[in-house]
Amino acid sequence: MTLSFAFSRRFLLTGAVALTAVGTALPIFAQDVQKGGTLVMASLQKPRHLNAAVQSGLATAVPAAQIFATLLRYGADFEPQPYLAESWEFSDDNTVLTLKLHSGATFHDGQPITATDVIWSLDVAKQNHPFSSMLEPVEAFGAPDPQTVVIRMKQPHPAILLVLSSALTPVLPKHVFDDGQDIKSNPKNNLPIGSGPFKVTAFEPGQHIILERYDGFFLEGKPYLDRIIIRQYQDANSGVLALESGEAQIFPLLDSTRLIRRLEKSGTMTVTDQGYAGIGPVNWLAFNTKNSALSDLRVRQAMAYAIDRNFVTKALHSGLSKPAIEPVVQDSIFFAPDVESYDFDLDKAKALLAEAGYGEGGNTLQLRIDYIPDIEEQQRAVAEYIKAALAKAGVEVTVRASPDFPTWAQRISSYDFDMTMDQVFNWGDPVIGVNRTYLCSNIREGIIWSNTQQYCNETVDRLLNQAGVEPDLAKRKDLYAQAFRQITADIPIHFINQVPYHTVYSQAVQNPPVSIWGAMGPMDEVWLKQ
Amino acid sequence: MTAVTKTSVPAARGPMVEAWGIFRRSPSAMLGLALLAVVILMTFAGPFLYGVDPFEIVWAPLTPPGQEAAIPLGTDNLGRDILAGLIEGGSATLAVGFAAALITMLIGVMVGAYAGFYGGVVDDVLMRFTEFFQVLPPLLFAMVVVTLFQPTLVNVALAIGIVSWPQTARLTRSEFRRIRTLEYVSAMRAIGAGDSNIIWRVILPNALPPLIVSATLTIGMAILFEAGLSFLGLSDPNVMSWGLMIGSGREYLLDAWWVVTLPGAMIFLTVLGVSLVGDGLNDAFNPRLRER
C-alpha cells in the first residue's frame, strides 16, 4: 500500500522535480512505519501566537509548520517538493507561476481548501509579514478555478518557490480569519484552525503547545504521530535534562556547544547539525559605519584581522560551530568561497590601525561593543573575547550589557552603538534574509535587522537587485558571488561563525526533521519506534 | 558606690579599648579578622606581585588548576587567568561591599534617627516610607534598579544600598527611641542644646555600637548580593569582580568546577570573615558580656 502510494504520487508530478521528491521520500518506506505515539519536543522559544503569516521567527514557525500546510515543501536539498500544490509551472518569461492544488484537501474544521483561501492567505502575508521583500514583486494573485492558483509577478522572482514553503506562507482558512479584525491581533491566532498535518488543541504560553493528528489531512496515511507536544523549558540545561530523563524525545535548535558535546559523549542520543540550511544562522560583528573611527575602512579591516575566528569556533564553541566568512552560510546554494576572509593576522591589524592614526604614536582607539543578551556562548562570550583580542591590537573595548532584548534592539536600531554582536538568519534565499542587511534603501531607523550598519554601496545594491530577478541559477549564483566579494571588501560586518544549531533526539525518533527547514518544516513523516 | 566602680574598672580604659580587649579574646573574631586581613592584603598587594591582566586571554580555555605552572589556578571559559581574576576581582567586590554598606548606613541612620527622635507624624511618615521599601523583595528590587540603569559597579552598589537600608533605619529608630528618654539627653536639652546637636552629637555616638555591628554584617550581605546579581548576569562586564567570574562561569559548572568554585570560595571566606568580625564586635559592645 505504501509503495502504490509512492508511485501514484510520482505520476502526478511534473518534470525532474518528481524524481527528486521520490528520491528523498524512498528511505521513509524502506522500513515499516509504526504509527501513533506522542512526540514531546523540548523548546526554549516563546511564541507570541501561532499565525506565521503575520509573524516571522522560529518560535511561531515551528508550531505553525505543523498546523498549516504550505503550497510547497523542501527536503534536505534546496529542491522544491509538492505539498498542497501537486504541480506547478512558470510561464516562459518566468513572471507567471501557476500551481495546481491537491484535491480533497480540507481545513481542520472540515471545509475544503480552495484556491480562494490560498490567494487570500498569500495576500495576508504580502500585506503583513515582516519579510516584505518575499512577496513584494507579486502584482496579482488569481484563482481561475478552485484548484488553480496563479501568481503574477512584475519581474522574474526566483525566490518565490522558497517563499511558498514552510514557515513563510501558511495557508489560512479565509472563512475563519477574514472576519474584519486586524489579522495581526486576531485572537484566533492563538488557536488557529489550520490546514496542516496537526491541529492545535492547546496553547499555554510558557507551558506547552499541544498538536493532535488531523485525521482528514490530505496526504493519505499521514501524519504518523498521534500527537506532538511542544513543551517549553526555561533554559537549555533543563531541556537537556528532560531529554535525558525521557520526558522529551527531541530538542531542536540547541546551540549550547557544551551541552551538545555532553550529549554526544553520553551516546544515548543522536545529535545532528542537519536541518538548518534554510535558516542559515550567522553570528557576526556589525560595525556602525557612521562612527567616526569605524567609517575608516582600514579600522574595520584591522578589527577583523585582530579577531581569531578559529579561537571562537574551536575554543569557545568546542569545535562545533563553523566559521562564517560572508553573508550566507556554507550550506547555502549561493555560498561563494572566494571572498576576502580576513584570517587572523595581528601584525596586519596593528599596521592598519597605525596607518589610520591609532596605536603607537597616535591616539588610543576606544570603542564600545554590544551584544544580544541571554545568548551566552554565541553572543556574550564572543563579545568578551573580542574585547580581549582587540586589546592585543591596542584597541580599548568596553562591553555594554543590555538587560533585555528590546533594550538591545532599541539601541542598535537607533544607531546608538559603535559595534555589536548580532545573529541574523538567511531564511533560505538572499532576497529574504540577506538583502535587508546591505541595501541602501533598507537603512530604516527604528527597525532591528534592517541595515543598521548604515552601509551603502550602489554596486552592491545593483548586484543584489539583479540577482533577485535573475531566473538562471548559475547566473544568479555569480551575481551573488560578486555582491558578497564587494561586501566583504567593504566590511560593514565582520562575519564570525555560523550558529551551531543542533537537533538532539532519542533513538526512538525516526525520520527526524532534517530538511532545509528542520523543525520549521512539517513533521508528518516523523514516527516513533516502539 | 562610685568608689567601688573606680577600683574595679581603671578609669584610663575608654570604651573602645575595652571592646578591643573583649574582641581580642574571642578566637572566632580573631579568625575573622585574620581572614579579612588576608583577603584585603591579597587584593591590594596582589597586583604588584602577580601582574597578569585578568581580561587577557593567556592560555587554552578551561585549563584546570595545576596543569600549567604559569597559570596555577587554571583558566576560565575564555582562557583568562583565574588567579589574576581573583586578585583583581577582590578589590571590586570589596568596594561594592563597603560602598553598599556606606549607602545603607547613610540612608538608614538618617531616616531612623529622625523617626526615632521626633516620633509622632515624622515617625509615621518615615516609617511608612521605610515599610514601602521593606515589603519589596530585595533581590527583585535590586534587579529592577540595575536593569533600569546600566549594570555598572556604581549602580550595583547603589542598588544594593537602596534595598538594604530599611533594616538599619529600623534599628536606628529603636535605639534613638530608647536613648532619647535617658537622663543625659534630658540634661542636654535642659542646657539648651538644639535638636541636631542632640541627634548627631549626643544620641548617635551612644547608639553606635549596634549600628557598627549591623554595618559590618551589611558588608557581608552586600558582597553576597553582588554575587547574586552577577549570577543572574547583572554585573559590570568591564570590571573584573568575583561576581562577574561566577556569572560568566556558571554555564561551565559541570565541565569545569574551578571557574565558579574558586571565586565562590573567595566570597565565602570574605563573607565568613566579615560575619565573624561582626559577631565579635557584637559581643565586644554588649555591656552584659563585659567583665566576665
UniProtKB/TrEMBL annotation, chain A:
SUPFAM superfamilies: Periplasmic binding protein-like II (SSF53850). InterPro entries: Peptide/Ni-bd (IPR030678), SBP_5 (IPR039424), SBP_5_dom (IPR000914). Residues 79-441 form the Solute-binding protein family domain. Residues 1-30 form the signal peptide. Gene3D superfamilies: Dipeptide-binding Protein, Domain 3, Periplasmic binding protein-like II. It is found in: Periplasm. It comes from the Bacteria. Keywords: Signal. It holds the Pfam family SBP_bac_5. Belongs to the bacterial solute-binding protein 5 family. This is ABC transporter substrate-binding protein. It comes from Paracoccus aerius.
